[in-house]
Specification:
alpha/beta; globular; 104 residues; Rossmann fold; 4 strands
Length: 104
Amino acid sequence: MYDIAVMGDKDSIAGFGALGFNTYFTDNEQSAKSVFKQLVSGETAVIFITEKTAAQISEEIEKYEENPIPSIILIPGVYGNTGSGMNGVRESVEKAVGSDIIFN
C-alpha cells in the first residue's frame, strides 16, 4: 500500500499528522534533500511539500516531474504563499487539456 507524505517546516505541516499523513520536518536544504530522496525511493505515492522547502530542492523535484508516482504537490506554508504551487497546477491542467481553462 502506498503512503502519503508531507514535508516542510514544523509549523506548516504538524497538523497533517492528525489526518494520517506521514510528516517529515525539514529545517534546511540538506535535511530536505535527504528526506525527499528517502520518499521517492520508497512506497510513497503522493508527496506534499511546502513551497519554501520545494524551493530549496527544486533541482531534485524536477527529476521526478514526468513520473506518475510519486505525485509531487506544492502547498503554501504558514509563512506565506509564493504562488509556485498554483503555477504548478496551472501547468498540469494546461498540459492535460491543451489550454489554460482555470485562469483564462
